[in-house]
C-alpha cells in the first residue's frame, strides 16, 4: 500500500478539491433580493416578476425578482436551449403539460389561440423573393383531442421579404389569422409592410382576406401590432400603433418630430378605428415613454412627460367607446424617474427610482381610478444594512406578469 | 483488480514529474500574475487618492475598491495561458500514454501485453490515469484560486478590498467558466463528454497500432464518425433552435443514448483490438 501513496493522494486530492469547489460555490452566491411591501396589500405584487440586471464590473447577469426572492439566470451550459419567456408562465406550462403532442414546435405565443373548446396554432412558411407564402393551421378539439392540419398557399402580387403571424382569433365560425408581411416592390429595392387578415372557417377552408389600410399619409411611417397581455379566449379587437416622421416639423437642430396614433381593428366588422387623438412627439427626449396595451376590450395608452415627472394614462373602453384619463405624478408616490410601466389585469404597475437613493419603488394602482393599492421596494433578502451598496449594481429593467 | 490498480499506479508514476511541472507552472504564473495585477491596481488607487487621476484600472465609476475577481480579470490572459498549457500537455499525453510503450529499444508494450491478466486492464489503467490527471489539475486550479484569495488579502489593505463573489471569480476569466462551470450538472456533462472523447481517441490509437499505415486512415475515420454521430444529431434534432419538434428532455435523452453507445462501442472495440489484433 505504501508504494501507491502518490496515486492515492493524487486521486483523493482531485476528488476532494472538486467537491470543495462546488460546496464552497454553493454557499457563496451572488446577493439575493426580493420585493418587500412598504404599504398596501402584499398580494398585489404576488403575480409580478421584475427582470433586473446585476452588474459589478466583471459580468452582467440577469435576475428575476418576486415577493418570494430572486433567481439569477444561469450561465448557459450545453443543455440550455433558447426558450421563449412565455413558456415559463404557469398558464402555458399547464398547456404544454396537458397537450404535449399538439404543442410540439409551437413556440410563438402570438401564433397560438386558446379557448375552452379548442387550441389553434397558425404558422407561416415563406421564402424570400417568392410570390407566395403558405399558412399552416393546426386546430385541436380539446374535448376529443382530435387535431386538424391544413395548409393553404396565399399568392402575393409582389415578392415576399418576410412574413409572420401577429395574431390568431376565433370569432363565431370564423378563424382569423392576422399576418404581417414585408414585401419587396417589383419596381425597385423598396420594401413595404402590411397587415392582412386571412379568414378561414373552423375546418381550415379559406373564406376571404382583408387588407388593413391605416390611411397613413407619409411614406416614413411604421405600424406596430400590440401584442396581447397573455389574454386567453376570443377578442374582437386587434390593437396597433403607428409612428410617422414629420419632416416639416423639426427642432432647431433638425431633430424630426413624430406623430403617434393608436388604432383598433375589429375582426367582426373589418373596421379600423383610431383610438384617442394623434400626438406630435419628440421621441428621443430622455425618459420619454409611449406604450399601448389592449386587454379584455379595453385599450390603454401611457405617455410619460419627463419634464413634469408624470405619466398620462388613457383608458378607452372599446365596446362603450368611453374614455377615462389619469395623470400620475411620480413625486406624489414617492418616486423620481419612471423606469418601467405595465398595465394589465386592471392594474397600472410602475417601477420608479427613489430620489437620492439607489433603490427602486414598485407601485400598483387601480387602473379605473388611480388609487394606490400597493407600494413595495427591492430589498436585499438577507436584510443587510448596506442595501444601497449592493443595490448600486442592480438595475431593474422590466415588469413581467405571471399569467 | 490488483493488477489494474498496479497498472494505474505505474501510469501515474510515469507522469509524475510532468504533472508536478505543470502544476508548478500554474502556481507560478497565476500567483505571479495576481501579484502583478493587484499591485498595479493598488498603485492606480494610490494615484487616485493623491492626485485624483483615474486610469483604465480605476475609473470614475469605481467605488475606489478593488476585488479579487477584478485582479484576476485584469490578468486573465496569463491565467488562460497557464490553463491552456496544462490542457495542451494533457491532450498530447493522450497519444503519448500509448505510443511511449512502443518507443525505445526495449519495447515496453511487450511486457505489458505479456502480463498474466486481462489486456483490458491496460486500456482501463491508462484511461483512469488520464482521468486522475484531469481531476488533480482541476483540484489544483481550485486550490490555486483559494490561495490566490489569501495572497490578495495580504497584498491589498483591508479598506481597499472590495467584495468578491465566487461567481465573479469564476467569470473573471473565460477559461474558468468552461473549465469549472458553476453548475455541477454542467461539470458532469462536460467531463463526461471529455471522457468519451478520450475513449474514442484511445480506440483510434489502437486501430492505428493494429493496422499500422492503413490503420491511420481507419483511426481518423473512426474518430470522425464518432464525432459526427454525436454532433450531427444535435443539429438535426434542433437542440439550439426554439422551434424544434422534440422537447429538450427528449433530445437530451436521445443524445445521451448516442453518447453512451459511442462510449460502449469504443470500449468494446478497444478491448477487442487489444485482445486479438494488436501488433508490436
Helix content of chain A: 10-25%
Largest beta sheet of chain A, briefly? 5 strands, antiparallel
Sheet with most strands: strand arrangement of chain A: 1-24-23-22-21
**Largest protein interface, residues of each chain:** A-B, 43 and 51 residues
> Helix content range of the residues of chain B, please?
over 70%
Number of strands of chain A: 25
Proportion of residues in β-strands of chain B: under 5%
Q: How many helix segments of chain B?
A: 9
Provide the number of structural domains of chain B. Answer: 2
Percent in strands of chain A: over 45%
The major pleated sheet of chain B works out as: none
Task: Give average pLDDT of chain B, whole number.
Answer: 90
The secondary-structure class of chain A comes to: mainly beta
Quote the average pLDDT of chain A. Answer: 85
Describe this structure in words.
The complex is a heterodimer of chains A (403) and B (280). Chain A is mainly beta and 403 residues long. Chain A is built from 4 helices and 25 strands. In chain A, strands 1-24-23-22-21 form a 5-stranded antiparallel sheet. In chain A, a hairpin with a 2-residue loop joins β9 and β10. Chain A is globular. With 280 residues, chain B is an all-alpha fold. Chain B has 2 domains: 1-182, no CATH class; 183-280, no CATH class. Chain B has 9 helices and no strands. Chain B has helices at 2-51, 68-74, 76-99, 108-113, 120-155, 166-171, 174-179, 184-236, 248-277. In chain B, α1 packs parallel to α5 and α8 (184-236) packs across α9. The longest helix of chain B has 53 residues, at 184-236. The relative contact order of chain B is 0.11. The model of chain B has no long low-confidence stretch (mean pLDDT 90). The interface between A and B is large, with 43 and 51 residues. Chain B: This is ABC-2 family transporter.
